[in-house]
Amino acid sequence: MAEQTSSNEKSARVIRFRPRGASASGWGWPLQRPQPPVEPPDLAKFERTADEDDYRHRMTMNALALLVTAVLVAAGVWLAFSIAEMVKNQDCFLQGRRNCEQIVIPRRDEG
């Protein structure tokens, strides 16, 4: 039994696995050549002078953005209240109750 252990120790090898992309020289990050810096594109075509500022158009777009935002907020609030009401009614029905809907009784004017 001792002979088998010694022969296994002699033939045993540890294989080191390198991660993908690792350099052959050793562990770690692959060696990469430094890339030359990339120059940004010419932005001169997007620049404006102070004379080209269209105040009226900008304020119209701001008002339109405010209107769209207000409509989205109102729709979100309405949707939240509608879902809350549906959940309340569904809970009532699932508990086996009757007449879960709210009854609106019109007021009678006396006179």
Tell me about this structure:
The model has no long low-confidence stretch (mean pLDDT 80). This protein is flat. It has a domain at 72-97. The chain has helices at 2-11, 55-94. The protein has 111 residues and is mainly alpha-helical. Helix content is 45%, strand content 0%. The protein starts with a helix and ends in a 17-residue tail after the last helix. The longest helix has 40 residues, at 55-94.
What labels describe this entry?
2 helices, 45% helix, mainly alpha, flat
Give the SSE string.
HH
* Mean of pLDDT: 80
Q: Evaluate the radius of gyration.
A: 38 Å
* Count of alpha/pi helices: 2
What is the distance, rounded to the nearest whole angstrom, between the alpha carbons of the first and last residues?
A: 115 Å
Number of strands: 0
> Considering DSSP H and I runs of 4 or more, what fraction of the residues is helical?
40-55%
Question: Could you say which overall geometry the principal axes of the C-alpha atoms support?
Answer: flat
**Unreliable runs, pLDDT <50, ≥5 residues?**
none
Beta percentage is under 5%
Structural class: mainly alpha
* Biggest β-sheet strands, sense, barrel: none
Write the layout of secondary structure elements.
Blueprint: H1 2-11, H2 55-94
